Amino acid sequence: MLKHHLIDGGPVFNGSVYTWMVVDGIHMEIGFLVDRLTVLMMTVVTFVSFMVHIYTVGYMHDDPGYQRFFSYISLFTFSMLVLVMSNNFLQLFFGWEAVGVVSYLLIGFWYTKPTAIVANLKAFLVNRVGDFGFLLGIATLLYFTGTLDYIDVFARAETMQGETITIFGGHAWSALTVACILLFVGAMGKSAQVPLHVWLPDSMEGPTPISALIHAATMVTAGVFMVARMSPLFEFSETALSFVLVIGAITALFTGFLGVVQNDIKRVVAYSTLSQLGYMTVALGASAYAAGIFHLMTHAFFKALLFLAAGSVIIALHHEQDIRRMGGLKKYLPITYWTSLIGSLALIGFPGFAGFFSKDALIEAVGLSSIPGSGFAYFSVVAGVFVTALYTFRMFFLVFHGSERIDEDVRGHLREPPWVVWAPLVLLAIPSLLIGWPTIGPVLFGDYFGSAIFVLESHNGLAEMGHEFHGPLSFLLHGLKSPVLYLALSGIAVAWYAYLYKPSVAENIRRRFGVIYTLLDRKYYMDELYQTVLAPGAARLGGLLWRVGDVAIIDGAAVNGSARLVGWFSGVLRQIQTGYLYTYAFAMIIGLVVLVAWLTLGVNN
Amino acid sequence: MAHSRREQLNMSGILSTLIWLPVLGGLLVLAAGRWSTDNRREGLAYWLAISTAVATFVISLPLFTQFDTSTASMQFVERAPWIQVFKVEYFLGVDGLSMPLILLTTFLTPLVLLAAKNVIKDRPAQYLAAFLILEGLMIGVFSALDALLFYVFWEAMLIPMFVIIGVWGGERRIYATLKFFLYTFLGSVFMLVALIYLYLQAGSYSILDFHDLPLSQVEQTWIFLAFLAAFAVKVPMWPVHTWLPDAHVEAPTGGSVILAAVLLKMGGYGFIRFSLPITPDASRSLDLLMIGLSLVAVVYIGFVALAQKDMKKLIAYSSIAHMGFVILGFFIVWKILARTGVTDGAVMGMTGAMVQMISHGLISGALFFSIGVMYDRMHSRQIADYGGVINTMPKFAALIVFFALANAGLPGTSGFVGEFLVILAAFRADFWYAFFAATTLVLGAGYTLWMIKRVIFGAVANEKVAQLTDLNGREFFVLAVLAVFILGLGLWPAPLVDVLSASVEHLVNHITQSKL
Known about the structure:
The complex is a heterodimer of chains A (605) and B (516).
Chain A: H1 2-6, E1 13-23, E2 26-34, H2 36-59, H3 66-85, H4 89-107, H5 114-145, H6 150-155, H7 157-162, E3 164-166, E4 172-174, H8 175-190, H9 199-202, H10 208-217, H11 222-229, H12 231-234, H13 238-261, H14 265-285, H15 289-316, H16 334-348, H17 354-368, H18 374-400, H19 408-412, H20 419-434, H21 436-445, H22 461-467, H23 471-480, H24 483-501, H25 503-512, H26 514-521, H27 526-572, H28 581-604
Antiparallel strand pairs in A: 1-2, 3-4
Helix pairs in contact in A: 2-3, 2-10, 2-15, 2-20, 3-4, 4-5, 5-8, 8-11, 8-13, 10-15, 11-15, 13-14, 13-18, 14-15, 14-17, 14-18, 15-16, 15-17, 15-20, 15-21, 16-18, 16-20, 17-21, 18-24, 24-25
Chain B: H1 14-35, H2 38-65, E1 75-83, E2 88-94, H3 99-116, H4 124-143, H5 147-156, H6 158-168, H7 173-202, H8 207-211, H9 217-234, H10 243-250, H11 253-278, H12 280-285, H13 287-306, H14 311-331, H15 333-340, H16 346-378, H17 389-392, H18 394-407, H19 414-429, H20 431-438, H21 440-455, H22 463-466, H23 473-491, H24 494-511
Antiparallel strand pairs in B: 1-2
Helix pairs in contact in B: 1-2, 1-4, 2-3, 2-4, 3-4, 3-11, 3-16, 4-5, 4-6, 4-11, 5-7, 6-7, 7-9, 7-10, 9-11, 10-14, 11-14, 11-16, 13-14, 13-21, 14-16, 14-19, 14-21, 15-16, 15-19, 16-18, 16-19, 16-23, 16-24, 18-21, 18-23, 19-20, 19-23
């Protein structure tokens, strides 16, 4: 398919498979739209999925749910493809919810683990909050355009810009802005943007292969994909773009900080994922959709790699996930070590690695943007580079270098996992290292996406950059001169100094800034807000409504009161009654028939 | 539009067969239970009951296969004088609104009977017979086109239901039955008065004549309120819903299934067969009340469901919330017309409401079956008594998780279709209608999956759960058949929607024209 579209220059496929239903003259269909954006997503999804399948053969080998696991991830791949290949909003929503369900099933894969079954419920509900907005967004579009097909909706985007909808008394909103923000609320759930990000770190309760596949490489990027797909809509609403930009910037920077204080290897990577999703979102908000998707692609490779490498460490250490009890693993796990290094360098955007091309281009595009909020966003993504390098190499050094803090009995049989586990690492390391070189030109500055992504001329920072783009090598050289690189390098240096060279420094800082540390350690208290205030609050409200509304007022006063009245009445008449309810009912029917007869006869006469 | 709705005569007698075959079968089952020798008694009664129900289902299939989807006219009509002095007729027929409900009834009854085998030990023949007779009467309700005939079926149907709850119910069955009785009978009396008034005005009991009967605004309002008393209780709408959780809790499994799946639909059916077409102007002037009550049902009841500790109560409350969508779908017509000037979207809302009724029948039925499966083993409905059922009943867990997701409106299951259409249509009426309706995405998922988490997932909670045995073949068959239909309807709802469309369009046209 990739070959068909790239080399043979195949046309965009857009066709329907079957009609889901026709109602009110609106055709709701299941159909596919395959253009180059879709093809890129399909390639990423199927490649990472394939790697994860192989990896799982080794990783889940001894698990009693081995077969169940494979059926889930196959279902996931199917749902994800349904999502990216859709040509209409209905099917998009199908895939959207289906990947959410598979995620629910997989986070709760180890269903006896109490934390896992809390995490999966949380993930599903938080996603549902996003879907709530998403569905209303679809409803808005249907209301104003009368169709659910992408092409037709996009064609109406420009006119929708002028139409308004009144939601809060009096103030008229641009219909398009409302629709785009509502759609983006869906993306905030799926792509874990603040404040709907809380489910993603907890999703690490699931098996590691799915953390790599679903919660890093593919499903969580669905929101980014969706916004890019809707670029013909978002382009016409500067307010919505600005909203996207600011949310993404907050996510990119503030979730990065959280990664610095985490001690669970998977959670560090998870916070890194959140932060990188923030980067992609920032790119979308800056109208640099291609940069967002490009970062999505490189991120899929190196983040899947980092997760699978983390998994490799975890199984080598017999399911130890605390980085404080690792260290010095370099000599025991050489393949994992080298592939992790590649992944880490790619993540921080070290020149030449995949992440460098995507992140540097992204940052530059944000810098060129003039949408409100872009100043803050630029600051966030630049500062984020330092934070990224810090947490990435903090983890890297604590795991692979320094003193060996592992248990003695584990150390005895510490060795590299079997080839089915490390082969995918190597296969993912190759694109993490190299994919940027051949792809940056066509994807970012060439005409790769063609009509799949639409950018207004006035927003098009990438095109501006394209004029100065003279091949990946010059881009690399340009990057060497940028301060961004030095921020990354200083991040590594700080990590090295504070965690490897002189660990007491980190300890001192932690003590000195106890308040900030606690704030970060408690994740800004957002989980507390949701889990001790909102969720139990809802249950308590339900209990209150039930006891007061249903039990006390309706049942207590109204119903049982009349029941007592009837009871008293029947007590009087008990002598002539059998006491069986169905006799009462029968008697009443007879009585009513007589009544009818009497009434109608009376009138007729 | 007057008299455009000519009925197509069809003397096949298929509807009569569907009504009287199960009733006759029920009587035979009663007799078999009484007269055969002890050992063979159960087997014979059971065999008779199942074959009657299956035969009824097979006979009902031509209703679907031979249905003419191009017309809103009544089909499979049977018409004969019954009590000539009052011009009461034996008048049966179906259109796209009633036919799917009849199929739902004939589809679920065999499953209910199948699930009763070896479970109901006390007077099994009478239990089976009650359901068969109930089936016939329910089909009578859905196919009667003569108001008095309808009323007779409507009330008669309650008798087997009382018996089912009152005889095979739980500890507080008498309280539950009394409550059920009070609520429904009070409502019905008002309906009867309204029907008699309509007869006096129209000179016949034909419901189709009622549809075309001109009525003043005042007349319409009174008639609408009288109908509301009867139908709101059945749906049930807030605040006349409190009989339902009690009835469900006390009813045996089969009773709960039929109650949720079919009986509640009679309320919805009543609105589209009586209230809307007979009193369109009153419906329009009172539509805000109806929309308000339906949104209260979705939001308020959604919260109440969160707080439930009894699984059956939880699903009962979930039913009330889901039926809120049905009422919302019916009554947004005029608000759409007022806001947009056209009726586009009204058909969608009403179609969504109809699909929601069918879908809710399947899903709530499946959930009550599932709870019954657990209850048969553990004799408890309390969520707290469970935990980790998946460890000992993996097959069952897979199915109930699927049903729970369907109940939460997962796309690809039938639970999504109705809610989706109603929300899309409600948006055309008012942003906030759609907003409050869409809260079900979060609330519905919340209460359903929280229950699943506490009951199904987790480590084995206690000795009793550790000793559970997984589904037997019969239970698996019942649940799997439902799962297939829930999935099928979710992936391809077009066949159902095609059946509905002509009748729904006709109804929308009819009710948007004033009778004044």
